[in-house]
Write a structure and sequence with these properties.
By secondary structure, the protein is mainly alpha-helical. The chain has a domain at 40-110: lambda repressor-like DNA-binding domains (434 Repressor (Amino-terminal Domain)), CATH 1.10.260.40. The chain is built from six helices and no strands. Helix 5 crosses helix 6 (103-110). The radius of gyration is 21 Å and the shape is elongated. The mean pLDDT is 90.
């Protein structure tokens, strides 16, 4: 897929890029198709989160049990994150980001 950068004037419709739309395909799209695509997208996003959580733990060189003890969550929670059954939210998501970018400081603050 080619990408290009365009500049548009929101007040001037003529400045919008010309795009091709397959109207037949658009008309044939059903709610069921949209639901299936959304489920697929959600599953892919969960897989990305699972890979991220697993990568952070492995970069620290910790087992699931050690990692869970260090960040004070259950081993089952870590397992669910890494298997894509659950997604870390809020503070847990922020903590994973900090552990990814500044692991020494984060682990020191947690000890």
């Amino acid at each position: 897929m080619k990408k290009r950068q365009v500049t548009v004037d929101l007040e001037d419709i003529a400045s919008f890029p010309k795009v091709r739309v397959n109207n037949q395909r658009l008309d044939e799209t059903t709610e069921e198709n949209l639901t299936m695509q959304q489920a697929s997208d959600d599953a892919e996003a969960m897989e990305d989160v699972a890979r991220f959580a697993r990568r952070v733990r492995r970069r620290l060189g910790l087992t699931q049990l050690e990692f869970s003890a260090r960040i004070n969550v259950s081993q089952e929670t870590i397992r669910n994150w890494e298997q894509g059954k659950r997604c870390p939210t809020g503070a847990a998501k922020a903590l994973l980001k900090v552990l990814d970018r500044a692991p020494e400081a984060a682990l020191h603050a947690l000890s």
